[in-house]
Amino acid sequence: MKKIQLPLSDEVIKTLCVGQKILISGEVLTARDAAHKRFHEAIQNNLALPVNLKGAVIYYTGPTPTKPGFVSGVAGPTTSYRMDKYTPMLLDRGLKGIIGKGKRSQEVIDSIVKNHAVYFAAVGGAAALTLKCITKSEIIAYDDLGTEAIRKMIFKDFPVFVAVDCHGNSIYA
Q1: Assigned CATH topology for domain 2-164
Q2: Taking burial as the number of CB atoms within 10 A of a residue's CB, which of 53, 101, 117, 152 is the most buried?
């Protein structure tokens, strides 16, 4: 498995190929449907986003409540297509990576190519096992959204695979 350290650079992105197994380490933002809707509203109203997307990776997850002795609740991937209507505008603002599960629309794939980004898929159903890869988790925006609040997580060797590379190749094709 290839190990990569975040934030993502164009040099690293161009080395990633569809189907490749990756271990990600570094800072990841979490955001699901409600947070994406707020991103959209902020952009439509010319307001600043509460996070810097330049070079960032967003993980589509909403962790369960944190149990004593753990840094996070279980954080499995959310089905990605629900964010498809918001993804191109975030990629246009510097987002470089996305982690989720499932197929993406052609519009998102085209935006990934245009913005030289990458879509990683995490394995659904294995969230309890990947919990050991989350070394830190803190809410940084939209705390009123509860489990859908935006978090900053620190990953150590979080397992994913390249689902759509920067050339538009898709594992789902």
Answers
A1: fumarase (3.20.130)
A2: 117
